[in-house]
TrEMBL record:
Name by which UniProt lists this protein: Thioredoxin domain-containing protein
Domain Thioredoxin: 1-106
GO cellular component: cytosol
CDD domains on file: TRX_family (cd02947)
Protein family (similarity comment): Belongs to the thioredoxin family.
Keywords in alphabetical order: Redox-active center
Disordered: region residues: 111-130
GO terms of molecular function: protein-disulfide reductase activity
One Pfam family cited in the UniProt record for this chain: Thioredoxin
């Protein structure tokens, strides 16, 4: 299940989160948003509590849409400790999205969790751009 977030709950659920948050900006009329939804649910299940997945209706949360300068839907933004680490938009297809999600997962899901190596991996995520 994807947690629905609004402008009212954004700070608490996303910016103040203790785990990285993948924010899915979409809209009910967006066909591609509906298509990627099952892929995001699968990603969320695979990540467990290591990465939080939230959804934001871009039409109903205009301030957030402007703040994050949305150009197209869907737009996925990975936020960690209140900072944008990665932005995913303009998908070329299902495989393009799956590859991007896999890279995110590999950067954050590590067993056993080693603080110094996970910090280094997170630095790599921030340098990737899509």
């Amino acid at each position: 299940m994807v947690l629905s977030v609004s402008e009212r709950t954004f700070t608490q659920e996303v910016l103040e989160s203790h785990v990285p948050v993948l924010v899915n900006f979409g809209a009910p009329w967006c066909g591609l948003c509906r298509i990627i939804h099952p892929l995001l649910l699968q990603f969320s299940r695979e990540c467990g509590k290591e990465i939080k997945l939230v959804g934001i209706n871009a039409d109903e949360n205009f301030k957030l849409s402007n703040q994050y300068r949305l150009k197209s839907l869907p737009t996925l933004i990975l936020i960690e400790q209140g900072q944008v680490r990665q932005r995913l938009e303009g998908f070329k297809g299902r495989e393009d999205l799956l590859d991007a999600l896999e890279r995110i997962k590999e950067s954050y899901i590590q067993t056993p969790r080693n603080h110094s190596s996970s910090k280094a991996a997170r630095g790599n995520v921030a340098s990737n751009s899509f």
